[in-house]
Specification:
It is built from 11 helices and 16 strands. By secondary structure, it is of the alpha/beta class. The chain has a 9-stranded mixed sheet, with helices on both faces. Helix 6 crosses helix 7. 41% of the residues are buried.
Length: 360
């Protein structure tokens, strides 16, 4: 690698956002509008096929067979095969100066895709984990047909459950009561994800990005923004931990639970790791997402963790506690698992420093 090429290697891992949503939920329209937005400069987008999003009016030049440069300053490419190879190749071309030095990557999934394997790919491949960081998952849900889709297709439930941002598309076409019912259902499924209504794909890109665990520029984390532990309790203090008892048991989301555990005493790091290994081994496929901030014994700074099923990001040590509260907070989105199991086993693994656990 030449000295000039080395200058193109970013100092910090590049942010990756995953755009998911079921067939017909409006990903195509959303992406088309995003790609034309000035705020999307220095963004690379990976799609399945160019033809699916009608880029003709946005094209400036065709860089290669599978790469085009857009008049917004975006770079758009298609990956027909392996995502890992596609991301590696795109990064190498960035380093070599063959494509513009993009600072953000957006990956559009197919409508039938379970997003978890894509998140695991980004987090577990050694080269990708070094060069890219997961910023967040954006999920589109059709306002008119969304409830029926959630009823019939478990993939759509998982897409909404793991999202950091939920976009209710075609919201102008739905009756007010239908829209409210769908948003209430999404909020129960994923309490912490902000819900935005979208008409004709129009939305401020600033509402979609920077959902990651910490700001690489300041090395700090707005825990209230990405963890949102308070979202798991209503104003009367009742916990969402025990799932959605008011839902029809035949619905796919009846088996999904989102809850937060708060642990007051410092956590033994080795025992915590043993606990997580146990969870992964026994229940990994059913732990859709886990993220948290930990008060680790003999460590002054908070430790941030984030996992998707069997794969975890390397822990991140923050410079200081963002909100002054030193309690450990762990947020889970799980399938067919009970919060009590997590409470009791964490206490058992950390019993020397055990303190009462509170679901919040």
């Amino acid at each position: 690698m030449t000295g000039e090429s080395a200058l193109a290697i970013p100092d910090e891992p590049l942010a990756v956002s995953v755009l998911t949503g079921f067939l017909g939920s409006g990903k195509t329209t959303l992406l088309r509008h995003l790609l034309a937005h000035p705020e999307m400069e220095e963004t690379a987008v990976i799609v399945n096929e160019f033809g699916e999003i009608g880029l003709d009016h946005l094209l400036v030049e065709k860089a290669t067979e599978d790469t085009v440069l857009l008049n917004s300053g975006c770079l758009c490419c298609t990956v027909r095969g392996d995502l890992v190879e596609g991301m590696r190749d795109l990064f190498k071309r960035r380093v070599k100066g063959e494509v513009p030095p993009f600072q953000r990557l957006v990956i559009e999934t197919t409508g039938l895709a379970d997003p978890a394997p894509i998140l695991q790919t980004i987090m577990s491949d050694p080269l990708l984990a070094e060069r890219f960081r997961l910023d967040g998952v954006i999920a589109t849900v059709d306002a008119v047909n969304g409830a029926a889709t959630l009823d019939r297709h478990v993939e759509s439930v998982k897409q909404a459950a793991v999202a950091d941002r939920l976009l209710v598309t075609k919201s102008d076409l739905a009756e007010a009561e239908t829209l409210k019912t769908l948003e209430d259902r999404l909020r129960a499924l994923n309490p912490a994800a902000p819900i935005h209504r979208v008409i004709e794909g129009e939305i401020d890109p600033g509402l979609l990005f920077n959902a990651g665990l910490y700001d690489p520029q300041t090395k700090t984390s707005d825990v209230r923004r990405w963890l949102k532990a308070e979202a798991y309790a209503d104003p009367q203090g009742h916990s969402h931990a025990h799932g959605h008892g008011h839902h029809d048991v035949n619905r796919h989301d009846a088996s999904i639970r989102a809850f937060c555990l708060t642990y007051q005493r410092p956590i033994d790091w080795e025992r915590f790791n043993a606990w997580v290994e146990m969870l992964i081994t026994l229940y990994g496929a059913n732990i859709l997402r886990m993220k948290g901030i930990l008060n680790v014994a003999e460590v002054d700074e908070p430790i941030v963790i984030h996992g998707v099923q069997h794969v975890f990001h390397p822990p991140v040590r923050l410079a200081a506690w963002p909100d002054g509260e030193r309690a450990s907070r762990l947020v889970f989105i799980v399938r067919d698992l009970k919060p009590e199991m997590f409470e009791h086993t964490l206490k058992a693994f950390n019993e020397d420093s055990a303190a009462p656990l509170a679901s919040a």
